[in-house]
Design brief:
Elements: E1 2-6, H1 13-22, E2 31-35, H2 39-55, E3 61-65, H3 68-72, E4 77-80, H4 86-93, H5 109-133, E5 138-141, H6 146-155, E6 160-162, H7 166-178, E7 185-192, E8 195-203, E9 209-210, H8 212-227, H9 231-237, E10 240-241, H10 246-249, H11 251-258, H12 264-279, H13 299-310, E11 318-324, E12 337-345, E13 348-351, H14 359-381, H15 384-393, H16 400-414
Parallel strand pairs: 1-2, 1-4, 2-3, 4-5, 5-6
Antiparallel strand pairs: 7-8, 8-9, 8-10, 11-12, 12-13
Helix pairs in contact: 1-2, 1-13, 4-5, 4-12, 5-6, 5-14, 5-16, 6-14, 14-15, 15-16
């Protein structure tokens, strides 16, 4: 089995490699190829990756290359974890929207649109090369904004599934609170990428006992702290929102916070410099503890589980993925990409049925789906007016003066990445 990671020079990669090493019985990788244009980073990450495999007794071969076509040739699955423009572009995404009093965030609002516009054309080019090399290969997208990127891939006819670590993070946290094995905790997880709610937590599978009321009653304070929303709000909603819902439910509060502290991009950039220095130490043969602060917790477990199921070697029967709606949420188009529990196998994911949603949730999902439609159109076809329309449709913007100003800012800060600008 050959797996290729595009963006393999990321400081995330040792987390992924550690998972491949630990879970080799679930996903027996024989060749792991790390592809990245930044050869200096790739050398450091690749060296640590080989030492992790060696320490854990994994017999697979790790190859590093800056040649995309060579790296994807013959791959059974290709994982995408790239960041067009690097942390410098992320820094901009998180700062210029604040000038208009809007959220500065790399996946949500104006910053998220900027990242989509930079990313979608690059990902589609990679996917076309994968299709020419191996039409049966699966593409697993971890590149944000996952929902928009995955929809672009599926709309172009690629064998693709989107993956996010929010759900597995909740699963592990709830399992610890319940004293249960993670595999026994089944989430009723519904929404769009970075716009999801846990409407149920069932033990033993999708038909098991719903213990969400018990979790909220006994551990509501800890859960509220984790998602950074007030405990009374969770009690009133009766669900657990992802922490990304804080950008919607406490928008102005978050904007005030973001204006008074260093950006997350600045924090991550400093952390990456420290991590890369660690990776260069030939004595280091495990992922460092600092990596846990980088983000992406449990990414490796989720990626291994999904790849194993898609490639027919095992994996959990039900997994939270980003895939086509196909009537699952009847208020959305069939070709919308949703994030829900699905039965996953070699033929791909099939969403499980979702009970009717409260309009409080379905209304916001429908609104953001409309924005994502317009965002993808802007990413594929370009043009100032398409960018403006997407921003005007976003519920965190929604005013024409803001949308106009943000459009100008977005284009000015991303011109080098936008072929049409």
């Amino acid at each position: 089995m050959k797996l290729t990671v595009v963006g393999g020079g990321s400081t995330y990669t040792p987390e992924l490699v550690d998972g491949f090493a630990r879970l080799r019985d679930t996903l027996p990788v024989e060749e792991l190829v790390l592809v990245d244009p930044a050869e200096d980073r790739l050398e450091l990450v690749g060296g640590l990756a080989r030492r992790i495999f060696a320490k854990q007794g994994h017999g697979g071969r790790i190859v590093t290359t800056s040649d995309l076509d060579a790296g994807i040739d013959g791959a059974d699955a290709v994982l995408l974890q790239l960041r067009v423009g690097g942390q410098a572009a992320r820094q901009q995404d998180e700062t210029w929207p604040l000038e208009c009093g809007c959220i500065g965030q790399e996946t949500t609002g104006a910053g998220g649109l900027a990242k989509a516009l930079r990313t979608v054309p690059v990902v589609l080019d990679i996917a076309e090369r994968v299709r020419r090399s191996n039409p049966r290969a699966w593409i697993i997208d971890f590149t944000n904004p996952v929902g928009i990127v995955t929809r672009a891939l599926l709309q172009a006819g690629h064998r693709a599934v989107g993956l996010c670590n929010v759900a597995i993070g909740f699963q592990r946290k709830f399992a610890a609170l319940l004293g249960a094995a993670p595999a026994d905790v089944h989430l009723a997880h519904v929404g769009l990428n970075h716009l999801t709610w846990e409407t149920g937590v069932r033990l033993g599978g999708p038909e098991g006992e719903n213990v969400l009321p018990k979790l909220l009653a006994e551990h509501g304070g800890a859960i509220a702290d984790d998602v950074r929303l007030p405990r009374p709000l969770l009690d009133r909603l009766g669900v657990v929102p992802s922490y990304y819902l804080r950008y919607y439910y406490a928008h102005d509060e978050v904007v005030r916070e973001l204006r008074t502290k260093p950006s997350r991009a600045a924090e991550v950039a400093a952390m990456e410099r420290e991590l890369l220095a660690m990776y260069g130490d030939p004595a280091l043969d495990e992922k460092p503890a600092l990596l846990a602060k980088r983000g992406g917790a449990f990414y490796s477990e989720a990626a291994v589980d999904l790849a194993a199921a898609l490639l027919g070697g095992g994996g959990s029967p039900y997994q939270v993925v980003n895939t086509l709606n196909r009537g699952t949420l009847p208020f959305l188009p069939d070709d919308a990409v949703i994030e829900v529990q699905a039965a996953v196998g070699p033929a791909g994911p099939v969403p499980l049925p979702v009970p009717a949603l409260d309009p409080l949730f379905s209304g916001l999902i429908a609104n953001v789906t409309a924005y994502e439609d317009l965002a993808l159109e802007a990413a594929l076809r370009g043009g100032r007016d398409r960018v403006f329309r997407a921003l005007l449709a976003h519920p965190l913007i929604g005013q024409y003066a803001y949308a106009d100003a943000l459009t100008d800012q977005l284009i000015a800060h991303n011109r080098e990445h936008l072929a049409w600008a």
